[in-house]
Design goal:
135 residues; alpha+beta; four-stranded mixed β-sheet; UCP006173; Puta_zinc/iron-chelating_dom; YcgN family cysteine cluster protein
Length: 135
């Protein structure tokens, strides 16, 4: 698979750009509604995708080689679905031709998030909706 084909699998939901918290005692992962400062919260995409590591050194690259180790990606993620032998969901932009069905299904971060720079205490922003995996 070429890098362009791999990149096209991304549904553009923005969930990978959510800040997450790991409980030190239980190692449990919690999603928040606070996003990376680079995320365009309306378009659900990185404002500086190709240079993102310069702006956010801790940003993770999602690759064919590391997908099995990225246990913080939600089950709705196309990369995770395919890794686990599942099909793309019916709302996926590759199947529908646009992000409209994804947004309508509530599978993106659009309208649900705040920028991390506006957050004082991340644990006040824990949410469950990123765990939804419909279709």
């Amino acid at each position: 698979m070429s890098s362009q084909e791999w990149e096209s699998l991304c549904d553009g939901c923005g969930k990978c750009c959510l800040n997450k918290i790991i409980d030190d005692d239980t190692d449990e992962l919690y999603y928040t509604n606070a996003t990376c400062k680079l995320l365009d919260r309306d378009e659900c995409r990185c404002r500086h995708y190709t240079e993102r590591f310069s702006y956010v050194p801790g940003c993770a690259a999602i690759t064919v080689d590391n997908i099995g180790q990225l246990d913080w990606l939600p089950e709705s993620c196309a990369y995770i679905r395919l890794y686990k032998g599942r099909d793309l969901p019916s709302w996926h932009p590759l199947l529908t031709g646009s992000k409209d069905a994804m947004h309508a299904a509530g599978m993106s971060v659009r309208g649900k998030v705040v920028c991390e720079t506006k957050v004082r205490y991340l644990d006040d922003h824990i949410v469950l909706w990123p765990l939804l995996d419909c279709d």
